[in-house]
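Hi everyone, sorry if this is the wrong subforum. Our group has a chain we'd like a structural model of before ordering constructs, and none of us has done structure prediction before. Sequence below.
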Amino acid sequence: EFGVLAAAFAAGVRVAEPIARCEDPAVVGAPFLIQKFLHGEAQASRLVRDPRLGEWGAAIAAELGDQLARIHGIRPHSGRPGGLPVPADLPARSEIARLRAALSGATEPRPALEYVLAWLDRHAPPVPAGGTCLVHGDFRTGNYMVDGGRLAAVLDWEFAHWGDPDEDIGWLCARCWRFGAIDRELGGIADRRPFYEAYQRRAGRTIDPRRVRYWEIMAAAKWAAIAVLQGDRFRAGGEASIELALTGLLPSELELEALDGVEAYEASVK
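Answer:
Right subforum, don't worry. Here is the predicted structure as tokens:
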């Protein structure tokens, strides 16, 4: 993670500057890293309900587009960050394989989710012309900080990997990450236009809405799989957590969201 942060910071991404890391567990009980302190609000439910959202939502959306394009400008051949495996298959199929492997240990079958994963596998898109790039892996409202109507920092890089850039765009735009603000398709804070325009200007490529739609379906399927496993931690694993229990109620809603996405995708190509 320190290497990912260092590469992002060097690329001009707005992250808390990584200062030092220590791998000796004797210091604080575990390996750790130190970053520069930054101030801001990150709680998604507060951001999408902020009464000033009309003043700064579109500007933040544009900043997010510019920042994500900078992230996607980091390529495997640069040598930074090191240690991340390059997918041997199409990035979408690699993601599906991980989800299927995780669900193999679930306590109950999820036929609707398995159907969606099979559909995603059949329709897996090729990587865009620019090739595989650094993918944040959890680029959404709740994982960036806003301070005074400006983007302060992009957070939570532990899922970063080499992959398809549209994975991040689909994740950010997915209905499940709008936190109730369904009509504001860009993470619950704005419409897509300012984000798309800023991203395309920085990245030098045109966003394909159909590809993004595919990755939005993937986002619903991925979050459904995570919710199944987190619910199992409460039901079968004995973890007394209200958060895990409530998350375990989400899979059916997310499966329906994914199936609606499949229907819309297929209707768009007829």
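For your construct planning: The mean pLDDT is 95. The CA atoms of residues 170 and 216 lie 4 Å apart.
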